[in-house]
Amino acid sequence: MGIKNLIKVKLKNLKIIMLFTLLISVFSCSNNTEFIDYKSVNGSWHKDSIQKFQFELQNSKEENYKTYINIRINDNYKFSNIFLIVSIKNNLRLISRDTLEFKLAEKSGKFTGNRTINLIENSLIHKENILLKSDKKYFVSIEHAMRIINNVGGLEYLDGIIDIGYKIEKIN
User: Taking all residues of the chain, what is their mean pLDDT, rounded to a whole number?
Assistant: First the structure.
């Protein structure tokens, strides 16, 4: 494939991703969503590429929230699961650091989640009931911890990952 054709394909994919992101933003936001943001990794997530999110809530007191990790993948994703290391900090301290495994496919190999065109989006529950304050800045970092069986080092590039997102919803 020539370089011009490769560039055309990349631009076409970028347009589809941007349209998809816009549609998801318009149609999926509920009135209890306090924060949502996505970071693009353009189809291949490097093991040293930590996705970082920063937010400050606009509530008037301490409230309980449910948090999600949103992952957009395509058919190039070769695994049925994903391992993530997720940290939440505020201005003063580390609140939590978790190593989590999420299933992204059924035993048959069919991906779970919402499929649109060539993307599959999963909204994975991170914390079901976390107390957050309005007077603090929060920092979330997400990194993949994928490995190949019988291989000591982590997988350098995790192909098939398009975007990583973080969402916070107020618990009513």
Answer: 86
In whole angstroms, give the CA distance from residue 130 to residue 140: 13
The structure's pTM equals 0.79
Burial grade of 17 (CB within 10 A; 0-12, 13-18, 19 or more): buried
Q: Structure tokens of 15?
A: 């347009």
Q: What is the β-pairing status of strands 44-46 and 33-40?
A: unpaired
Position 153 pLDDT exceeds 80? no
For the domain spanning 31-170, the CATH number is 2.60.120
pLDDT at 122 over 80: yes
Count the alpha carbons within 13 Å of 148 in the hemisphere toward its beta carbon: 9
Domain ranges of the chain: 31-170
